[in-house]
Amino acid sequence: MRTAAEPVDDPFTAHRRLLFGTAYQLLGSVADAEDVLQDAWLAWNKADRSGVANARAYLVRTVTNLALNRLTSARATRESYVGPWLPEPLLTEPDRAAEEAEAAESVSTAMLVVLETLSPVERAVFVLREVFGFSYAEIAGFVDRPEPSVRQVAHRAREHVRTRRTRFDDDPERRRALTERFMAAASGGDINAVMELLAPDVTAWTDGGGKVTAARRPLHGPDHVARWLLGTLAKPVTAGVTLEAATVNGELAVIAALGGEPIGVVTFDLLDDRVQNLRFQVNPDKLTGLRRA
């Protein structure tokens, strides 16, 4: 959102989508990314711009370093997090939040989970190079490291991601068909229909952050996952919940809403027409990126 004092032709406005995308993919959090942008905007307005030859590079460097500082402190906080930690989801359909990240080529939830296993600097180098296509020389300036060192970090990060990132089916029609079947089975409370959609080795993670009821350990197997899901939907507190398909982090997902407000989202990986992994984000503090304007 542009502030009243922010001119339309200001470089910060022109590059805002890039800056938001950089912060979001480094932090996996919409709220933290917005905080970083606010801090970057304040720094930009205090800066002596007479010596800024490339505003885009200057702003990306500012956002990168602010995000790295926040990511380092966030790692310590996540060590005491209640239950599994999952990234904060972001709608990537035309809406308020997605407009800010439309040009940022938002990565999938599965990819954000993999990025969590990188060190802060590895994550920054990987995102800046592989997602946004900055040169090694530019990245070296952003992270204050020699270019040869950045190349080594980039190679190490790519190998790390490659070995941990499983390739899943990405056919949009198959995904849409399975999503519709999943919503129908879950809404109807049909445990057998739900189980038929799940892979034999399916795993589910639920992030409630200690704010709402959620499984504090991963759930394994179709029976366990299906019973937990339908048991949750059958509770009085979720009476009247509706399920809606929506594009979240670039992939079709299922949003659970109550009274028109999102109370959770299910993202999943699809392999051989079965759900391989499910990620339930139900922490109310992490749902701001799902709310439409």
How would you explain this protein's 3D organization?
With 293 residues, the protein is α+β, with helices and mostly antiparallel strands. The chain has two domains: 11-164, Up-down Bundle (Butyryl-CoA Dehydrogenase, subunit A, domain 3), CATH 1.20.140; 172-290, Roll (Nuclear Transport Factor 2, Chain: A), CATH 3.10.450. Helix content is 49%, strand content 16%. It contains twelve helices and six strands. Strands 2-1-6-5-4-3 form a six-stranded mixed beta sheet. Helix 2 crosses helix 3, helix 10 (172-187) runs antiparallel to helix 11 (191-197) and helix 11 (191-197) packs across helix 12 (222-233). The longest helix is centred in the first third of the chain and has 24 residues, at 55-78. It starts with 10 loop residues before the first helix and ends in a 12-residue tail after the last strand.
